[in-house]
Amino acid sequence: METGSPRSELKITSWTILLFSLLFFSSISSTEAYDSLDPNGNITIKWDIMQWTPDGYVAVVTMYNFQQYRHIQAPGWTLGWKWAKKEVIWSMVGAQTTEQGDCSKFKGNIPHCCKRDPTVVDLLPGTPYNMQIANCCKGGVINSWVQDPSNAASAFQVSVGVAGTTNKTVRVPKNFTLNAPGPGYTCGQATIVKPTKFITQDGRRTTQALMTWNVTCTYSQFLSQKTPTCCVSLSSFYNETIVDCPTCACGCQNNITQPGSCVEGDSPYLASVVNGPGKKSFTPLVQCTSHMCPIRVHWHVKLNYKEYWRIKISITNFNYRMNYTQWNLVVQHPNLDNVTQIFSFNYKSLTPYSATINDTAMLWGVKYYNDLLMEAGPLGNVQSEILFRKDMSTFTFEKGWAFPRRIYFNGDNCVMPPPDAYPWLPNASPSLTASLIPPLMVFCAVLAYLLGYLY
């Protein structure tokens, strides 16, 4: 076959397209799995062996949430692994396995769990004190370290048998999994590190673990859910247009093929659906809307002053089965480096790119005031306003500049309207600034007086 024949050119073109497609789709997956606003965020699992026993050891397992704004929400975390040998769990404090497994070969003292791949869950609040340790029994809920550092860890104690009794004979578990509460986290291999050191309460003595290993788990929204969980709508004082969330942003109404996928707000069956047998279900049950999102964030450009401008943020919960405790927003906007005042929300500046770029902020509710976003209904809404100082070298209302570039709710990227749908300035909008209007009015009044006097 000749080199320049059409068939050879077609073959080369096909291979080129295939290679480009593979590179393109792989880049999409890697991008979705990487959070550029929290590049170092992770869940670190620390396994500290505190005591040797006749056939194994006693360890304290602690999960630290080193993510800036992503929580582990109800119904909480589920931790799993696979034993390297034939280990069993004799007992646990502060947590329990979901299954005991086959312990028939044991006589007398029966282990807590004999499965090769145990699954562990946290105990619930109100657990008796003799079954608790520090940082346990929160129902698996772990808050982010920025928003609530005192509740950014969860721990339990486990007594392991049929295992090694020295740091040379112990084998590290493998295949760690973390659901929080669903898929989304990918855990690496356990790595033996320097033993953890502990300081006594009086600060005068330091002890250390007999052996320690760490496991790091990272989050991917792409793995967590197939559809988004929130969307953004926009409006402004200078345009009557209200830009709603994109249609079917989080799925489409499908009550015909999937009855009960959404509920009308005035439906007579709403009370029975929400308060019926499935009332403890954590599966979202959303109000029927065009966007079908559990959460909508509305950004309204409210007022324009000479040196300041003001916006209003409203968060609405359309999920009839979920109260969002310790909710948060992460917003990207170029004017966040000139925030003057925030009303009824907490604020923290995030600098994920460099210390000189300050265009990202984390917002969350004030404790005991609006830190709880109630389920869908009359109370399922929180709101606040932000006052910005104008930087005349960059400030403009043109081309959608006043609206956010990106918004996250509880760490999940919200669907934004397309840029060409943003509320634009009127075509005939006056170019005069507010500072020039009073002198102009005086000039016109004087001119009218003089003309009346002369004629």
Would you kindly provide a brief summary of this structure?
Keywords: Glycoprotein, Membrane, Signal, Transmembrane, Transmembrane helix. Belongs to the COBRA family. With 455 residues, this protein is mainly beta.
Number of helices: 4
CATH class of the largest domain: Mainly Beta
Q: How many structural domains?
A: 2
Strand content: 25-35%
> On the 0-100 scale, what is the average pLDDT?
84
Reported by name, the CATH topology of the largest domain is Immunoglobulin-like
Oligomer: single chain
Helix content: 10-25%
Largest sheet: 7 strands, antiparallel
Outline the low-pLDDT stretches: 1-33, 428-442, 448-455
What's the shape? elongated
Q: What's the β-strand tally?
A: 28
Essential attributes:
455 residues; mainly beta; Immunoglobulin-like; 33% strand; disordered C terminus; transmembrane helix; transmembrane; membrane; signal; COBRA-like protein
